[in-house]
Design a protein that fits this description.
This protein is α/β, with parallel strands linked by helices and 214 residues long. Helices cover 43% and strands 17% of the residues. Strand 5 and strand 6 (202-205) form a beta hairpin. The two termini are 37 Å apart. Bound molecules: zinc ion.
Length: 214
């Protein structure tokens, strides 16, 4: 298993490198965590939010799933990793922000646009995007040049934010000014991060110092 051996080698580099160099940070983190941000991201191996946002251990509480979905509170039956993580982040950790972090070229979004065998877990999971998908497909019926994949990636972030507000503890924290919600989209191909502007409902690129890039 060369792949797993590579993980062990990676651990050894971490243990003799970052873990030693950041010993004070890890000593403090051993006592507990107090991240200020929760991120709901896709499981996609290319879009690790702790890398994209360049955060250190202890700074970001993360839940990842296919297509960075947020099920509405009404869809929760029994155990739910997203609902449990959200409750813990908002009620116990008292994070300041919850960010729905989507990305371009998302396989989960592509799956939502394809007919899938109904007995597959992925088909059932991405069906949570159905309300957004129907809007995108209706728009594409009128304007066939719409990029349905990109449009649904955006619509899915908007839907995720709306679904977050279906949890009473999220709505209350936002209403009382204890919590802010944000939406973002990242494209690995051009390195662009776009943030959803609440005033315009558009995703606006984050300016970067291009001169510093080589
Ligand atoms: Zn994805």
């Amino acid at each position: 298993m060369p792949e797993f051996r590579a993980l062990i080698e990676g651990f050894r580099r971490f243990r003799s490198g970052q873990w030693r160099e950041q010993r004070l940070r890890y000593d403090a983190l051993a006592l507990g965590q107090a991240p200020k941000v929760m991120v709901i991201a896709c499981s996609d191996s290319r879009v690790d939010p702790t890398r994209v946002f360049d955060t250190a251990p202890g700074q970001m509480f993360v839940v990842r799933n296919i297509a960075n979905l947020v099920p509405p509170a009404s869809a929760i039956q029994g155990q739910s990793s997203v609902a449990a993580a959200l409750e813990y982040a908002v009620e116990v950790l008292k994070v300041d922000y919850v960010v729905v972090f989507g990305h371009a070229r998302c396989g989960g979004i592509a799956a939502a646009l394809q007919p899938l065998p109904e007995n597959r877990y992925i088909a059932s999971w991405v069906e949570l995007i159905a309300p957004a998908r129907e809007k995108v497909l209706a728009a594409a019926a009128i304007a066939p040049d719409i990029d349905c994949q990109a449009a649904l990636e955006q619509a899915n972030v908007r839907l995720g934010l709306a679904n977050l507000r279906t949890y009473p503890f999220v709505a209350a924290a936002e209403r009382e000014g204890r919590l802010k919600l944000a939406g973002a989209l990242f494209d690995i191909a051009n390195g662009e991060l776009r943030i959803l502007d609440a005033a315009t409902d558009r995703f606006e690129p984050v300016p970067v110092a291009l001169a510093a890039e080589t």
